[in-house]
Hints:
164 residues; mainly alpha; 4 helices; elongated
Amino acid sequence: MSKIVIALLRTALAGAVLIGLFATMVIIPGAAEEEVARVPAYAPYQALYVTVAILAVLGILVAISAVWMLLSMVGHNTIFTPRAFRWVDVVIGGTGFATLLAAGVTVHLMFVELPVDDGMQILGAMLATAACTGLGAVFLLLTIVMRQLLKKATNLQAEMAQVV
């Protein structure tokens, strides 16, 4: 992979980390405050949803950090080593954690009776969390398949090294 592509990917990852940190410190708590100010009956759920949202973003940030490390391994041409599996497993763990949290919120929104002005707001939130769950599950499965491909490629490279 060219150094330019790796640099562009690292720039994008750094931007994603900055956005994630900004979201955990400003956007999520601020949006929750605004929503509780608009509908005071949401106050009992505020701390729970803010905590879950921040934990989900932190799970994704852990996965992004592991992708950064994998990019470093690609840059040093050491991606086909057993050490890479540790970082892929971290990506799987962070993504799985965030996906489980999104699934939990989706289920909670299905069964909790929240006081609302309009049922469409809860439906929209439930569809958004369901979409996050679905996208997270697809990414998780894709990463698991890519881990298996990495394992096969690593084994093939080790066999080739023994032959040569």
